[in-house]
């Protein structure tokens, strides 16, 4: 079985990842974003993804197990806080790298919790 540069099995049936939408902002509810970013590991993974990195790179930099990094990066992707991109490796492979979809998150708590994103 062949593997990608990030150690995951190659999957020739997988469709290519679309390029990130520069105008995209996270769609998640403020409460779920707050809960996700309250997790120390998830927040550090998000912070370290200022430039594109693979999950093994993020796991090493954040000193977390790869399985933990995969799970939390997937949650960050689902929340639209990280965007995946495929980088070609060699003639036939690719590595999925992740980067932040926003540079700044502002949270206002009052009668209603509001979250604002800046790209």
From TrEMBL:
Disordered: annotated segments: 1-30
SUPFAM superfamilies noted in UniProt: Winged helix' DNA-binding domain (SSF46785)
Record-linked Pfam families: HTH_20
Top-level taxon: Archaea
Name of the featured protein: HTH domain protein
Organism annotation: Natronomonas moolapensis (strain DSM 18674 / CECT 7526 / JCM 14361 / 8.8.11)
The organism's taxonomic lineage, starting at the top: Archaea, Methanobacteriati, Methanobacteriota, Stenosarchaea group, Halobacteria
């Amino acid at each position: 079985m062949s593997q990608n540069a990030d150690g995951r099995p190659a999957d020739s049936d997988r469709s290519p990842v679309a390029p990130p939408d520069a105008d995209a902002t996270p769609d998640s509810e403020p409460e779920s974003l707050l809960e996700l970013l309250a997790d120390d590991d998830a927040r550090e993974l998000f912070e370290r993804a200022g430039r594109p990195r693979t999950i093994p790179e993020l796991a090493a930099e954040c000193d977390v197990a790869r399985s933990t990094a995969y799970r939390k990066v997937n949650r960050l992707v689902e929340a639209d806080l990280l965007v995946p991109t495929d980088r070609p490796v060699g003639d036939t492979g690719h590595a999925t790298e992740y980067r932040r979809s926003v540079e700044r998150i502002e949270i206002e708590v009052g009668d209603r919790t509001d979250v604002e994103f800046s790209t």
